[in-house]
Amino acid sequence: MGPVMPLYVSSLGIGVLGWSLLAMSAGVGMFLFEWVWGVLSDKVDRRLLMAVAFLSMSFLYPLYTLEGFVPYFIVLQFIYGAIGVVMGPTTRAYVSDESPPKSIGLFVSLWWAFFASGSVVGPLLGTYIAQAWSFRYAFYASTILSLICVYLVLTILPKNRKTPRRTDSRDMIGGLKSLLGIRCAVLLFLAAVFAFMGRYSLRALLPLYASEQIGMSTVEIGILLSATSVAQLAAMPVLGILSDRLGRVRTVLTGFALSSVILLFYFLAKTPFQLILISTVLFVALSSSLLLLAMIPDVAPNALYGTAVGVYGSSEDLGMIIGPLVLGLVWSSFGPVFIFAATVIIQVLAAMLVLGMIGNLNQTARQLDG
User: What angle do CA 210, 222, 108 make, to 5 degrees?
Assistant: First the structure.
């Protein structure tokens, strides 16, 4: 539903600032509930959480077809974010539980590949249905897919082999305080806020820019978003190899530098082909920021790795909350094309935070070893 939502609300007369508020509302739901579902998934069968989430989404999608005012959609988007985020911590934890100890990296990579493939097929399917019939049928199709997922989760996935475990809230708070006392870890979390702010917000507003400024059709916008997803899917293994050979910090900083330069080319884009080409190259460069997650073992002790991953995810959610509002205000105040200039500033800030980690990484590594 990613590319369909901004186009759908635009067809209802809701402007860019209104859509930014809706995107922010979903981010708030994710930010507030990601920790809740993560803790709950340690106490109950994770398959049950997945099934309940998909079933809830199947009831939620048709509610979008009831045309309403911005406050109505803000509530829906909040619920969408709060329920949809179940799949993040739950599926990652399930994959880790069911993977052989020596092959966890392989299985996690496969999970990411299958998850990313959905962002390739989804935009094409959703925008085709919306253009061929109506936006209403795109939401109905999402309901059908959610029900299929409920069936697959309950019939194909085996029950967790690991026994649900109890969590001491005092240990969680103490671990969080210890983690936030590590300078490099804090800088990494802040860098994740800005990196995700730029990547997510730009992808959220790109369909509107393509429609209103370039005149692209709904299907062309679906091709645009699918092209960027395919490029990211193909680039990630290559970037992973480069980060192992050149270092994660160097690879991430190179990606920030390249994306900042590529963003300036949007001022020259006048045709659908030019926009698709620039966006595809840009999102390949932006993919390097996903390697920030791989830097967590460099800044956090093994005992706090799970906590660090959770805080990192919440940092991305915070970027999702702030980003659409910031770029929406830039769009309304200065003009649509200036959202790309604002994203350059966001990228530079993220790069500065990563640069601030360099002088402390070796010291942090020695502390972790000790």
Answer: 120
Rounded to the nearest 10 degrees, the angle between the axes of helix 169-180 and helix 183-209 is: 90
Q: pLDDT value at position 193?
A: 92
Cβ–Cβ contacts within 10 Å for residue 214, how many? 18
In the predicted structure, residue 368 carries a pLDDT above the cut 80: no
| Phi, psi for residue 74 in degrees, rounded to 5 | -60, -45
CA distance 171 to 240: 34
Q: How confident is the model at residue 122 (pLDDT cuts 50, 70, 90)?
A: confident
Q: Could you give phi then psi for residue 42, rounded to 5 degrees?
A: -80, -10
264 vs 190, 338, 340, CA distance in Å?
24, 10, 7
For 283-339, the DSSP string reads HHHHGGGGGGGGGHHHHS-GGGHHHHHHHHHHHHHHHHHHHHHHHHHHHHHH-TTHH
Closest CA to 330 of 229, 197, 216: 197
Neighbours of 229 (CB within 10 A): 23
Query: Are 85 and 98 contacting, i.e. CB atoms less than 8 angstroms apart?
Result: no
Among candidates 141, 323, 118, 145, which has minimal Cα distance to 229? 118
SS (H, E, C) 32-88: HHHHHHHHHHCCCCHHHHHHHHHHHHHHHHHHHHCCCCHHHHHHHHHHHHHHHCCHH
